[in-house]
Amino acid sequence: MPRFAANLSMMFTEVPFMERFGRAAAAGFKAVEYLFPYDFPAEDIARELKRHKLKQALFNLPPGDWGAGERGLTALPGREEEFRQALETALDYAKVLGNTRVHAMAGILPSNLDRDTARRTYLGNLTRAAARAAEDGVTIVLEPINQRDMPGYFLSYTGEAKAVIEEVGAPNLKLQFDLYHCQIMEGDLTKRMEALFPLIDHMQIAGVPDRHEPDQGEVNYPYLFDQMDGLGFKGWVGCEYRPKGATEEGLDWFRAATGS
Fold first, then answer.
1. Rounded Cα distance, 9 and 246, in Å
2. pLDDT, tens digit, 9 for 90 and up, residues 199-208
3. Catalytic residue among 33, 48, 143, 213
4. Which of 27, 28, 42, 55 suits a disulfide with 96, CB 3.0-4.6 Å?
């Protein structure tokens, strides 16, 4: 049975962020993830994790100016020092929250930036970041994100992520395999998961095409959960979806998958 982490940026949004930890635990989740923790002191989040006996599975590095449309810094030339500071901030939070995995968002490329330059920047930043994160026992993950939800995002295909991970060659640089994004951009989820499995450190799920509960839409997730078990996946599966209605009312899929 896969181990599921509730994504608190999308789930349980009926209540303020700091109250979502308790709602997730009451629903049966053993871990949580979210986009960013930086609006709250790390110690306050750690207290909620401890209170509700939850594990922290994942969060992202600071992405630049989110309100202005930025979605990461890793592939953006001229922002290397800002990326380095973002990594340090994330590592500081990870140390307090107890998680060993952070996602470095690649970024949306400006229209006047060529991909070769962006790729060189991406490789350089990831090489340095992986070495720094290794000092703290932290793994950096890369997530291909689909072009429909995030037009212009630098990394959208699993093959590109695989090539980057292999070129950097750091043992703590891994793949965040989001089945929702992969289905939209590439499909063939079972075979891709099998082929990429040695690189996968974290997975995420959502229904396709509307990003609702995983029992909504075109993807047969019960089958894919069995494939994860068959492969021996021991990491967390993040539930990064927007509930169609109230969060708890849409958890039949979770109860069926976990037998709860």
1. 14
2. 999 999 999 9
3. 143
4. 42
